[in-house]
Amino acid sequence: MSNFLQQQQAVNETLEAVRVRMQLLEGERQQIEEKLSELQVQGSKYQLLDEISERLGRLEAAGAGGMFWADNFHENASAQVIQRIAESTRGYNESLDRLQQQRDDILNRMVLCNEEIFALDDRADELRREEEESKFEFEITREFEQPGFRPMVMPWHNQGEDENRFRLCVFVSLFMAALLGYLVPLYTLPEPESQVVEIPERLAKLVIEKKSKPKPPPEPEKAKPKKEEKKPEQRPEQKVAKQEPKPSKKEKKQARKKAERAGVLAFKDNFQDLIQDDLDNRLGQQTQLSTEGKKENRSQRSLINAASTAGSGGINTADLSRNVGGSGSNLGGVAFTRVESSIGTEGDFAGEDRPLSDGVGPSRTDEEIQIVFDRYKATLYRIYNRELRNNPALQGKMVLKITIEPDGSVSKVSTHSSDVDSSSLNAKILARVKRINFGAKDGVPTITILYPIDFLPPG
């Protein structure tokens, strides 16, 4: 029989003895409970006797015992009755207390037996667990080897073996040093070959400083006929207004109130960002601004006529699209140019500072167009930021093709090219640019420009 089986058998025997003792205690407890229940049935009677004896004792102490006993009153007899009642109630209380004490002792012993049973159960479980673990154990046996003898000497004590080892190391080191000192001088290194470094010829480039072009003198003769052409366009509007009947003051007030409550005027506070400033006070026709630093020299702006029906006034091969003069008439009246954007990061449309206009006639300069777009930069980026909430990875470049009328309004705007993957953003940008007003300018033809806008997320 193994050790685990013996221990388990001993634990089981002890556990069985404790359970038998527990059953005996349970039987004693039931007997005591029955006796207590019998005494509790008579408890109310003994309680009344106790109260009666107490009150009779008070009555005897007050000298009024005859009132209770009447004619048969005897002091000795009443005292004996009171004493007998007190003894019977005292005996009842003592037996009740004794039974309760026995019950408490039995309950305490039962608690101890339960604790002992729990401990024995834990021990039995532990033995079963150890027995299961012992099945997976295996013994490793090996022969005992006698350790070698080591002298009981401290490390700093000198020994003959240590001295011999030190002398051997010193001798070997000196021999190697002498051998290297003899062999190294015998080897001669070849002379290094000198390499001739060819210095490349320096190239010099003559840069001719560009002379600043003088400002063209004002041409009053050409400005007058253009002003005269616009006057007939304004006269028909005044004539149409005169033909309408003048409403009365009451009708005007009523119409003004109705218009403020309904229609577009009801949302007049929502279109504060569309209020245009007078560009003539800021710019003028010959304004020249430069808000960007020096950049890489690239080709100058070329003015390309969008109307193919324009006449030819001569050929100048030295400067094909700049300062082209002649007496040809422009039949289309539409010009096509490109404008640099400062919104976002600078891209493929960056270049050096550009002149105000090309040709002899007045035109809208790049600076004027750029200033107007700078004013609406925040509005365009608000639209982009709202779209960025739906698509955080939205970015790219849009190139807009914009047609600007002489009065500054945008008659046509479309997407020339775009790598922004959002049709809603393109539509909102086109709708917002369509409402931009570049300000009226005298003698300016209708032009079509390409304007790039880079949209990049912040950070």
TrEMBL record:
This protein's name: AgmX/PglI C-terminal domain-containing protein
Compositional bias segments (type: Basic residues): 249-259
Biased composition annotated in UniProt, kind: Basic and acidic residues: 208-248
Annotated transmembrane regions: 168-187
Alphabetic keyword roster: Coiled coil, Membrane, Transmembrane, Transmembrane helix
Region described as Disordered: spans on this chain: 208-261
Coiled coil: 15-42
InterPro entries registered for this protein in UniProt: MasK-like_C (IPR049806)
Entry superkingdom: Bacteria
